[in-house]
């Protein structure tokens, strides 16, 4: 099963993971791709995948990059960012992945697509987020399509990190 999980909160740009997840609903066979949204799950995130799954996480991130940067990270590359406070949440994705690794609860394939945002404001999403949503949605579709074409999991040692702007 491919599990797509939009992470975030209902506040401003932090809801961008949810927006992309919702845009993906109905684009793929529900028997193959499950799409959900979670409100700042913390360690409960681990309850939303199984070891045999391929998991695509969509999250707004707060790193050292420029607003609008898209992050693409796989496997252990996500956990190594725990010290960078990449997530906009207290116990973020990187810490949860590190926890999953220590509990031997990692999914077969794990990828984080993140969009660099600015400070969280309670108002609606900013122009910057709206500008990058189509690109982020397209990147998520491409990843899901690649996994559907190649259902064999890659080695757990595979680690990829990329940051890009347009």
In short:
The protein is of the alpha/beta class. It has four helices and six strands.
What's the number of extended β-strand segments? 6
User: Based on helices, strands and strand pairing, what is the structural class?
Assistant: alpha/beta
Instruction: Compute the separation of the termini in Å.
Output: 32 Å
CATH architectural name: 3-Layer(aba) Sandwich
Which whole number gives the mean pLDDT? 83
Rg from Cα = 14 Å
Shape by Cα distribution? globular
**Number of separate structural domains:** 1
CATH homology superfamily: HybD-like
For the biggest sheet, the summary is:
6 strands, mixed
Q: Would you state the CATH class?
A: Alpha Beta
The CATH topology name reads Rossmann fold
Helix content: 25-40%
Count helical runs: 4
What is the chains' assembly state? Answer: single chain
